[in-house]
UniProtKB/TrEMBL annotation:
The keyword Iron-sulfur applies. It comes from Methylococcus capsulatus. This is Toluene monooxygenase system ferredoxin subunit. PANTHER family: CHOLESTEROL 7-DESATURASE NVD, IRON-SULFUR DOMAIN CONTAINING PROTEIN. It is found in: Membrane.
Amino acid sequence: MAFEDVCKQSLLGEGELVPLTVGKKEIVILWPDGGEPKAYDARCPHEGVSLGRGDFNGRILYCIAHGWVFDGRSGRCLQPTGWCMQEYPMRIENGMVQVDVSGA
């Protein structure tokens, strides 16, 4: 695994979405209310639109292009069903958020 620093932990807040870039890959970190922060590929599985500009209410992420709806805790698509956001390994060490996108 090749974890890379992506931002300071202090930039993350519960209930928020943080769009970031790792190398040439756009990712989003979602921290759902009452859950743990997770890193996902920022491309909507529908047409590749950036979810970094999506609407996140602390629980649900809405794609602004066509209204696909994702669960912030699991990345699972709720509408339509049968899809899922690609999750990346993430950790927090020494105050830095680190993500591994090497397997993508």
